[in-house]
Amino acid sequence: MTRGKPLTEITLSQKLRPYGVKPRTIWIGQDAAKGYLQDEFKDAFRRYMPKAEIEDFLAEHQPGAQNPPTPPSPDSPEPPSNGSADES
C-alpha cells in the first residue's frame, strides 16, 4: 500500500499490472500522453465486481450515454419562466 502517501503514476501502474491493465500512449490531437483504455478494465470488472455494478458503470460510461444534468449552483441565475399557472 501507499501508507498514507499520494498515489503516484508508478504505484497505480504496479497495482493494475496483475489485472492485465497497462498504461499506453494515447494521442489527443497531436499531443501524446500515457493513460489507460476503459476496455482494458472490463475483464477485471467482470471478475471482481457484482454484475449489477458493472452494468450500471458500463451504461453510464458508454460513448453517447446521457449524463444526468448538473444541478444549478446557488450563484446561477433563475431559469426563465415557462408561463405555467402554478408559479407564484
What is the structure about, briefly put?
The chain has 3 helices and 2 strands; from the N terminus they run H-E-E-H-H. By secondary structure, the protein is an alpha+beta fold. The C terminus is likely disordered.
What do you see in this structure?
The structure is a single chain. The model is unreliable at 69-74 and 76-88 (pLDDT under 50). This protein has a domain at 15-61. The chain has helices spanning 9-16, 42-48, 51-61, and strands spanning 24-28, 31-35. Helix content is 30%, strand content 11%. The chain has 88 residues and is an alpha+beta fold. It has a two-stranded antiparallel ribbon. It is globular.
Total beta strands = 2
Query: How do the helices and strands follow one another from N- to C-terminus?
Result: HEEHH
Largest beta sheet: strand ordering: 1-2
Rg for CA atoms: 21 Å
Helix content: 25-40%
Write the layout of secondary structure elements.
Elements: H1 9-16, E1 24-28, E2 31-35, H2 42-48, H3 51-61
Antiparallel strand pairs: 1-2
Structural key phrases:
88 residues; 11% strand; alpha+beta; 30% helix; 2 strands
